[in-house]
Amino acid sequence: EVQVVESGGGLVQPGGSLRLSCAASGFTFSTYWMNWVRQAPGKGLEWVANIKQDGSEIKYVDSVKGRFTISSDNAKNSLYLQMNSLRAEDTAIYYCSVAGVSSSTLYIYWGQGTLVTVSS
Amino acid sequence: EIVLTQSPGTLSLSPGERATLSCRASQSVTGNYLAWYQQKPGQAPRLLMYGASSRATGIPDRFSGSGSGTDFTLTIGRLEPEDFAVYYCQDYGTSPYTFGQGTKLEIK
Fold first, then answer.
1. What is the mean pLDDT of residues B72-95?
2. How far apart are CA A101 and CA A78, in angstroms?
């Protein structure tokens, strides 16, 4: 069974930093991408960043470039998001997902999310 | 950046009826890499369709997707009570991998 579990959310002041973690297990893709997607309270989904499992490809949405850094530890199947210079508009549930292809079928597994609140 | 516009914003239907949800892209979606998700309150999104028309594993065949280029449709053939939720489309072909704003499917 695939499990994806996020941690590290919490309350932080504007301008502060927070590091999110995601532990994924139970999948056997040879190639996969890990993503961060966020959802502000009562709003829609926003893709934030992703990384290919070997670290060769990293992409960000413009609104977080220069402030957020995505990284991964292949040995631990773990994903991280270092968030600096946080703003009120970064307040959201942050979801981790794992996307891979097996036998020409796309699979995307999601965690239950971790809440980040940026407020003074 | 590709902008995805979903319509309608809210769709009110009864169980047993057919639902048609639209997703229009501001420019052609590379390789028809268009996905649909279902999200229920307090839950993570669930992948329904990928490649515009391929059903994800475990998704009932009352769900179907169609379209190419800039116009895509998710059809739910006969609504079950558990289908009432918010639905999102996503372009996963070109970064940033934007989502549409969502369509809320509610019980009439």
1. 97
2. 19
